[in-house]
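Give me the fold.
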Amino acid sequence: MNPDQQAPELISVGAQAVVANANRLGLTWQLRLARVTEGDDPFAVSALYDGDSTEIDMVSMIGALLPDTRVYVIQVPPAGNFIVGLITTAPVVGNEECTSVIGMSAGTTTSIAFATMPGTPTVSIVRANADSRIRIDLAGTFFSTAASAGLAAGVSIGTVGDFEVATVNAANSSLVAHTPYVGYLIVDPLTVSGGIPAGPYTVTGIWRRNGGVGTLNVDAGDMWACCVREIR
C-alpha cells in the first residue's frame, strides 16, 4: 500500500500514529487482516495473518483481545505488526468467570447418567452476546472403588443442557489414589436448539460413570476447577 494513502476511518486513532511515523521515516506499510489466537497481553498478542500458516507476535493498540477475534493489522517492515481495529462490531472483551473448589464435599455415584457433583460446584456468568460461543475449561480429581471404573465429567448450563467436557476411561486406582481429569469444550449457540440468549447463567459441575464397575468418589482430598468464557 502506498504510504501516502490514509488508513480507513474504521480503525483506531492509534493507527494514524503508526502510519504517520511510517510516513515520516519513509517506510511502506500494509493493512492486513488476521485472526487472534491468544490476546490476553496487548504487548504480546499471538495472531495469524489471512493466507499465512504460522502465528506471529503482534502489538494490540486496542487492548486485550479474545481468541478468534478478527482484526485489522498495520504491517510495517521489517517486523512491525500493530493491531489497530476490529473487523466486526463484536466487543473486544467478553465475560469470563472462574471457580475453584479445593476440598470437595464427600459424595459418590454409580450412575451412568449425568448427576450433579457433590456440593454442587458452580460458576455464575452473564453472557454479553447472544452470538458468542462459550468455552468451558474443566479440571478436577476423583477416586474409585475399582480400577476399571471410568468417569465422564462435564457441566450443566442453566436450562440449556448438559455437556460432557472431560473423560477418564479407567481410573486405574483404588480408594487411596486420586485420579485427575482435564478437558475443554466450545459450545456454539448455533448447535443448540433455540440458541443461548444473552443473560445470566449458572454452570454446574456434573459427573457420571462411563464404564467399568465400582463407585466413583470425591472427598476433601479432591478438587474441582472450572472457567467459563465467551469467545468469538
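The longest strand covers residues 199-211.
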